[in-house]
Automatic annotation (TrEMBL), chains A, B:
Keyword line: DNA-binding, Transcription, Transcription regulation
Name listed for the protein in its UniProt record: MarR family transcriptional regulator
Top-level taxon of the source organism: Bacteria
InterPro entries: HTH_MarR-typ, MarR/SlyA-like, Tscrpt_reg_MarR-type_CS, WH-like_DNA-bd_sf, WH_DNA-bd_sf
Organism: Arcicella rigui
Domain HTH marR-type residue range list: 1-149
Classification via PANTHER family: TRANSCRIPTIONAL REGULATOR, MARR FAMILY, TRANSCRIPTIONAL REPRESSOR MPRA
Pfam family, one: MarR_2
Transmembrane annotation, as ranges: none
Entry keyword annotation includes DNA-binding: yes
Alphabetized SMART domains for the sequence: HTH_MARR (SM00347)
Length: 151, 151
DNA sequence: TGACATTAAATGTTTTTACATTAAATTTGT
DNA sequence: ACAAATTTAATGTAAAAACATTTAATGTCA
């Protein structure tokens, strides 16, 4: 559905305002699709993202700080997200040998298996559902990058 | 900062995946900017959005359902958002004359004043901070629209 | 070395979200 | 008209987010 229809607003003050609203709207749309896929696995979006970060480093572990640095939302509580993943046996945690303050987190085989299952569904809505060509997807990324350039 | 730098990931599996991550990232970036502006006014993003919806209908009131229909995030609890705005005297609430189930919500002069103040700051980061031309902003909206077209 | 600052992670607390349920008013169908 | 279904809003609730504080380990440097 178009934004205008969905939020019952027919005009925006500027192209920029419309783009901003469209980004927020599209983000919500994307989150909805992803959560639908994740729900049966009892994973939240944030937990899923942490899992993917851990897989990105497998078989090397990564500290909580390392996770935060790679998270899109830096404000969320990585410690507690890891707690939740621990309860599901998707990660293991042990003291970092060279810095006893830090904690090494490693994704388990079970975690990798869950992600592997999710990959196929992820692919489904990332490739099939999209009306964008690859070139257009790149163009979209470039525009977003440019939007964030403040100087 | 570029996404790659900020989340310390140098490659994406596909242009689509990168675009998705970029949307989420940009959305967080936008929310951060907005919240910075809203914080001194003790308003959350959602409350701010509800206020703007109410202004959009001023001087006509609008019901809670009407608010929900116009919100980007349909899942959030409009009743409680209105409660919060009531506490700050930014809106008033009274029974809808032609349907006693419904409740008419109207933005107050104080609410309008707050929004007017926020408008100028909003404008600041919507126009000055952006590296995008108007044409590019439109192009961005079009690409997002196209991305959401599933059929 | 030893005081002080910094870093890493966990924990506490309040607010917000997501979702279900409830309660009252209205609409529908017979 | 009246029972059943639907709509509207509020409320209950468990979980999560936002943000500050705490605890322990490490780093800095006079």
């Amino acid at each position: 559905m178009s934004i205008e229809q969905d939020i019952k607003q027919s005009s925006f003050k500027s192209a920029h305002e419309k783009a901003v609203v469209n980004i927020v709207y599209t983000n919500n749309w994307l989150a909805g699709l992803q959560m639908e896929v994740l729900k049966p696995y009892d994973l939240t979006l944030q937990q899923y993202n942490v899992l993917r970060i851990l897989r990105g480093h497998y078989p090397k572990p990564i500290t909580v700080i390392g996770i935060i640095e790679r998270m899109l939302d830096k404000m969320s509580n990585a410690s507690r997200l890891v707690d939740k993943l621990l309860l599901k046996d998707l990660v293991v945690r042990h003291e970092c040998p060279n810095d006893r303050r830090a904690v090494d987190i490693l994704i388990t085989q079970k975690g990798l298996d869950v992600l592997a299952e999710l990959d196929s569904m992820q692919k489904f809505w990332e490739e099939k559902l999209y009306g964008l060509s690859e070139a257009e997807a790149n163009q979209l990324s470039d525009l977003l990058d440019k939007m964030r350039k403040t100087t």
